[in-house]
Amino acid sequence: MTAVKHAEALSQIGQAEAFKQEGNNRFKEQNFRGALGSYHKVFCFVNGLQLPGERNEAAQYAEMMGRQAGASMTVPGDRVKDVKKLKQSTYLNMAASPRRLVRLVISTLPARSK
């Protein structure tokens, strides 16, 4: 991997981590829609990265079309666990947000009369 691709991959990981933290802060403020938006941005940055030994979707589609995929940015070996943990924790946070969002909406509805 070239030094430029290595630096680009690290930059994308850093940006994804920043959006994850932004989402966590918004979640704590009970701004669940904002949190979901920030968590979505995490995946905009990490989904284009390739983990060593794995093929990303773009490479698979290119192969199906009989073409060779362009050079992708491979996650440095020492950051693979970090990226996997970032993805997993972001998925879990996203899953928690809608439930809280629904509860928040329900709590603002007027009580039903019997």
In short:
Helix content is 68%, strand content 4%.
Question: How would you characterize the overall build of this protein?
Answer:
There is one protein chain. The mean pLDDT is 80. The protein is mainly α and 114 residues long. Helices cover 68% and strands 4% of the residues. Helix 1 (3-28) runs parallel beside helix 4. It starts with a helix and ends in a 6-residue tail after the last helix. It is elongated. Keywords: Isomerase. This is Peptidyl-prolyl cis-trans isomerase FKBP4.
Helix and strand arrangement:
Layout: H1 3-28, H2 32-46, E1 49-50, H3 57-64, E2 73-74, H4 80-108
Parallel strand pairs: 1-2
Helix pairs in contact: 1-2, 1-4, 2-4
Low-confidence stretches: none
Provide the structure class.
mainly alpha
Distance between the termini: 68 Å
User: How much helix is in the residues?
Assistant: 55-70%
How many independent structural domains?
1
The best one-word shape is elongated
The total strand number stands at: 2
Q: Beta-sheet strand percentage?
A: under 5%
Spatial strand sequence of the major β-sheet: 1-2
Q: What do the pLDDT scores average to?
A: 80
The profile of the biggest β sheet is:
2 strands, parallel
Secondary-structure element sequence?
HHEHEH
Protein name: Peptidyl-prolyl cis-trans isomerase FKBP4
Keywords: Isomerase
GO molecular function: isomerase activity
